[in-house]
Write a structure and sequence with these properties.
By secondary structure, the chain is an alpha/beta fold. It has 11 helices and 7 strands.
Length: 251
């Protein structure tokens, strides 16, 4: 249920901050090195590559709902991971996983009740979910600037109607949804992080403002991003609030 398409080549170039945040998440996942792990939302494969390094005798299945991302991940990872085109809310696997790892993905999915039910079903008893996504308060300053510019012409007739928010839940509601899906040992918490991208224009175009950019005529899209940057001021600082998720399927 991803609501947008992605420029996988650009994402691969500019997603260094996503990779750095993912390193912290991966550090929370205890691995012997021989497990079978699902990367739920693999993007272009850069974070999946880090996961593969932790599993020298194991196996990684990496899934994403965007065809361009899957193509890029296959190109990047080659035979290091089994990369598949899969929508997480329709996840059906023929093998149970020892762990599910995910970063920067769940906030693109509106239905977290169904998402957590599918992830629970994909884990073996005793399997662990370790994830991070956008949480309550994520990108507030950036999205306010994007809204401010979207209300101006010539942009308003194209994008003023767009909902600016992803699904950025709080720890309490996520804990309740995980418990309803059957998970135990649940720990959800918010973590703030400021990112200053090297190329703010490409980063915002590809990652944070993709829906708006895709809804604008080609000639207006770069101007829109420039105007958002002008409101934010330079250097551009992106105000991430991430929701860390740890949970276990009961043994």
């Amino acid at each position: 249920m991803v609501e947008r398409t992605w420029d996988a080549q650009s994402y691969h170039r500019v997603s260094g901050p996503m990779v750095e945040m993912a390193r912290d998440v991966l550090d929370r996942l205890p691995l012997r090195g021989d497990e079978t792990v699902l990367d739920a939302g693999c993007g272009s494969g850069l974070v999946t590559e880090l996961l593969c390094e932790r599993l020298p005798s194991g196996r990684v299945v990496a899934v994403d709902a965007d065809p361009a991302m899957v193509e890029k991940a296959r190109e990047h990872l080659r035979d290091r991971a089994d990369v598949r085109l899969v929508d997480l809310v329709e996840l059906e696997m023929d093998e149970p996983f020892d762990a599910i790892f995910s970063t920067a993905t769940f906030h693109w999915i509106p239905d977290h009740d169904r998402l957590f039910a599918r992830l629970f079903a994909a884990l073996r008893p005793g399997g662990r979910l370790v994830a991070q996504c956008g949480g309550r308060g994520n990108l507030e300053r950036l999205l306010a600037a994007a809204d401010q510019v979207a209300e101006r012409e010539p942009y308003a007739s194209h994008i003023a109607h767009l909902s600016r928010r992803g699904n950025f839940p709080d720890p309490g509601s996520t804990t309740r949804r995980l418990a309803a899906a059957g998970f135990v040992d649940i720990d959800c918490r918010l973590v703030g992080r400021i990112v200053t991208p090297d190329d703010a224009h490409e980063y915002l175009t590809t990652i944070n403002l993709g829906r708006q950019v895709q809804a604008l005529p080609d000639g207006l899209a770069p101007r829109y991003v420039d105007d958002v940057i002008a409101v934010l001021g330079e250097p551009v600082e992106i105000d991430y609030v991430r929701l860390d998720i740890d949970a276990v399927r009961p043994a």
